[in-house]
Design brief:
Layout lengths: L1 H22 L13 H49 L2 H23 L3 H21 L2 E3 L12 E7 L10 E6 L2 E3 L2 E4 L1 E6 L1
Parallel strand pairs: 2-6
Antiparallel strand pairs: 1-4, 3-6, 4-5
Length: about 190
């Protein structure tokens, strides 16, 4: 028991020593005067540089967002103008044909020479077909050609007069047209069977 109490006393001494060590402040190495200021000045410079970079990036972002917004608005306006006035060039080129038709109608009421009227109307039709051709509109050739369901629609099937006319287009009731190679109106045809 005596040994035990000695151990306890000895343990109390250890505890006291530990308390003293914890309460004691470690001695810090002596710093040279001004040495502590140097790291702080470098850190301040780094913080200032990072702040400047952040401001520059924010400014760049705001300008880019504004530029994109302006681009989007300008594009929407141009698109609206194109939708509204897109056919202007096409229509202004068509006006001379309209003028010629009005003149022909006026002359039909007053003229007695049918041959001259026919020639005038043919000239107007040729002018109009040239106009269509300039804008990429082409007539689909159908007569005496094999039936093509991608460019024609059969409105009737009739017995073929000859064996070699089976599956061929015998008559076209409504012409078909393509615009730059794309079918814009199918030709209505009569096919031999």
């Amino acid at each position: 028991m005596k040994k035990r109490s000695e151990d306890m006393n000895h343990g109390d001494n250890n505890t006291d020593e530990l308390k003293k060590e914890c309460n004691a402040t470690p001695e810090s190495p002596k710093k040279e005067e001004g040495a502590s200021d140097i790291p702080k000045a470098e850190e301040q410079d780094e913080v200032e540089r990072l702040k400047a970079d952040l401001e520059a990036q924010n400014d760049k972002y705001v300008r880019l967002a504004a530029e994109f917004d302006n681009f989007r608005r300008r594009t929407m306006k141009e698109k609206a103008d194109l939708i509204q006035n897109g056919g202007e060039r096409v229509l202004t080129e068509l006006l001379p044909v309209v003028d010629d038709m009005e003149l022909a109608l006026k002359n039909i009421r007053e003229a007695s020479d049918v041959a001259a009227l026919r020639e005038g109307v043919e000239l107007i039709c040729n002018k109009f077909f040239e106009y269509l051709h300039r804008h990429g509109v082409e007539e689909i050739e159908t007569l005496d050609k094999p039936f093509d369901d991608e460019r024609q629609q059969a409105i009737a099937m009739v017995p073929a007069p000859d064996e070699d006319k089976k599956g061929m287009v015998l008559d076209c009731t409504k012409k078909g047209y393509t615009l730059n190679g794309k079918v814009i109106r199918f030709a209505d045809v009569v096919v031999g069977e």
